[in-house]
Model the fold of this input.
Amino acid sequence: MDFLETALWVLLVLSSLIIIGLVLIHRGRGGGITDMFGGGFASGVQSSAVGERNLTRITWIVAIIWFMTIVLLGLITRFSI
Done:
């Protein structure tokens, strides 16, 4: 059980960092962090609407993984002896 808990903590940290990066890459709707840093990497990723849709899908997938990891860690904590 310790291995599973450790693996889930590592997954939680990694998915948290990935979500932060993905949210910062998203196209700004005016005055956001993307505009403050001048776009940079975001302008290459978001060259089309397809790129923005794919970025949104990836963000949602990582967010679901993040949420499920938190739920599993909560269940392990709740039912551990």
